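hiii, so i know i said id send this last week but things got crazy w the move. better late than never?? heres the sequnce for the chain we talked about at the cafe, plus the structure i predicted for it. fair warning i was half asleep when i ran it
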Amino acid sequence: MDYLKSNYTILPLDTLITQINSGQPLPPNAVAITFDDGFENNFTRAFPILQSLQIPATIFVTTGYTDTKDILWTDELYLRFKKTVVENLDLTDIGLKNYDLQTLSLKEQAHAETVEHLKKLQPKERLFQLDKLREKLQVKELDETDKKEFLMLSREQIGAMHSSSLISFGAHSAHHEILSRL
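okay and structure toks below
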């Protein structure tokens, strides 16, 4: 953020869009800072830095997760891949391949490929496939410690950032669906 502040003209996203749409010239090296999904670490980690440097930003919040202990399905799946003791995962039945899961690196690669595949599915079919994957990965429960780094913002945190006048908010759907699939 120090680098950005020293080398760019950081504008609030709405200001940048207004200037582009109205044909006004932008200042040199204009940039807007955005955060995707509305993770709690936007408040705990990013916001103090943005405040100290007086840098504006926009956070796109996945509203259905606000004030919950739920996490995005992609993150839940990541944790299940990470924690599984299964050494080999056959996903040929859903159009993928047979995965070796003996190292964290292999688990992360399998997770990434699986997520990309699941994103292409209709929501109902994705939920069905996620249930099958949960069984195959054999990770019974994810505890609160596992989920902590993937929690989303609370209304209170959103309110505190909004009242600073540095942070604006945009919608990122209620449940992080791929809109072209709805």
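btw The chain has a mean pLDDT of 93. thought thatd interest u
miss u guys!!
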